[in-house]
Amino acid sequence: MGIAVRCENLTKIYDTSEQKVVALNSVNLKINLGELMMLVGPSGCGKTTLISVIAGILDQNSGLCELFGENLLTMKSKDKLQFRATQIGFVFQAFNLLPSLNAAENVSVPLIINGVKRDTAKQQAIEVLERVGLGERWKSYPNQLSGGQQQRVAIARALVHSPRLIVCDEPTSALDHTSGQNVMNLLKEVAVHKDRALVIVTHDARIFEFADRIAEMDDGHIVNMR
Q: 123 lies in a domain?
């Protein structure tokens, strides 16, 4: 089994005018190909910072973070953007949907960035929306959808370009139990293959059963693995 993500002595410090905040303190973590890893722990313990570094959204201050053997920190900006566009799907807690685009258009964005023609991208987006139970709402704009429906659009957008790493920040927080179970079944089915991996930040104990491993974080450290 290969390694999707390898973090060694990973440190991230937020340096404000008032104080320095150590968000990650020498974190060591390996996520295997084919694995669904969950990160759990109290608010402010470093979970979102960790997945942001893993996904290349933030740069660490020190330590190593490799994705599929590639070090994003040493990549040129253009190469890093291209790598993220093709290899990573990100489900943000705040959804980050574009209000001027309908559901299908929002989901199409990663495909269009990767050069897929708009008509083809739209059709693929509708197919993924059907898989998350929103096929009939593909024309709806974000302000016409509930929070749970917007969450499912965001998940569809993360899955549509078949990235090798799916990174999710509280993907079931806005969903009821049944919808949350359905979304997790979909994520596990689509994202967890021998050449892919899925990492989820969550407080939702209802979905812990879907994890292959759970990393517990506190105060910038991984304190337990189960």
A: no
φ/ψ region of 195 (left if φ > 0, alpha if ψ in -120 to 50, else beta) reads alpha
Cα 77 to its chain centre, rounded Å, is: 20
H or E segment and range at residue 7: strand 3-15
Instruction: Give one DSSP letter per residue of 160-217, joined into a string.
Output: TT--SEEEEESTTTTS-HHHHHHHHHHHHHHH-STT-EEEEE---GGGGGG-SEEEEE
- The whole-angstrom separation of Cα 155 and Cα 27 is 27
Number of domains composing the chain: 1
Q: Domain containing 81: what range?
A: 3-96+162-225
pLDDT of res. 62: 95
In angstroms, the first-to-last Cα distance of the chain is 19
Asked if residue 154 is part of any domain, the answer here is: no
Contacts of 219 by beta carbon, 8 Å cutoff, 6+ apart: 25, 45, 46
Asked if the structure places residue 192 within a domain, the reply is: yes
User: What are the 10-residue block averages of pLDDT along the chain, 226 residues in total?
Assistant: 93 87 94 95 93 93 95 91 92 89 97 95 96 93 92 91 92 83 82 84 93 95 92
Q: Residue ranges of the alpha helices (H) in 114-168?
A: 118-131, 147-159
Note whether residue 166 is domain-resident: yes
Q: What SS3 state is found at 86?
A: helix
